[in-house]
Design goal:
- It is a single chain.
- The chain has 5 helices and no strands.
- It is mainly alpha-helical.
- α1 runs antiparallel to α2, α1 packs across α3 and α4 runs antiparallel to α5.
Length: about 140
């Protein structure tokens, strides 16, 4: 897979993750509502702000960024899941999906470095750090409950 193709997959993955976090934000219920409602919002807001730079990096490499929902659905690596309104189940599912995004980002980072695309590598490194933060926060939020 070329670097630009890899970036398109990452873009589809982060768009999918953003909608998952946003949907959980809308539908969370229970005594932990406020905490998880806020956490999910923080996550989807951060991810949303990264979507445009992903697309811009694809354009920098001379290709067109996907924008159709059907394209995102076709190339995302994240499975659709059905989760109840339980915040722990939602956070656990979001953690699994986020960890998949981290793995994909690490592959893109390695490839960008191999191809001497330092700007792409720097951007992806920042996104790895952000997604690792979300993994940590989701993991500890579901611990011992």
């Amino acid at each position: 897979m070329t670097l630009v193709e890899h970036l398109k997959v990452v873009l589809a993955n982060v768009v999918t993750l953003k909608f998952k976090a946003h949907g959980y934000h809308w539908n969370v219920e229970g005594p932990l509502f406020a905490e998880f409602h806020a956490l999910f919002e923080t996550i989807y807001t951060d991810i949303d702000e990264s979507i445009d730079p992903f697309a811009e990096n694809i354009r920098k490499l001379g290709d067109y960024a996907p924008y159709k929902l059907s394209t995102f659905q076709a190339i995302t690596e994240l499975p659709e899941t059905s989760v109840t309104t339980n915040p722990i189940a939602m956070a656990s599912d979001l953690l699994i999906a986020n960890d998949q995004v981290v793995e994909c980002l690490m592959e893109v980072f390695d490839q960008a470095n191999e191809e001497r695309q330092q700007g792409v590598a720097n951007f992806v490194a920042e996104r790895i750090d952000a997604h690792q933060k979300w993994s940590w926060q989701l993991r500890v939020s579901t611990k011992n409950i």
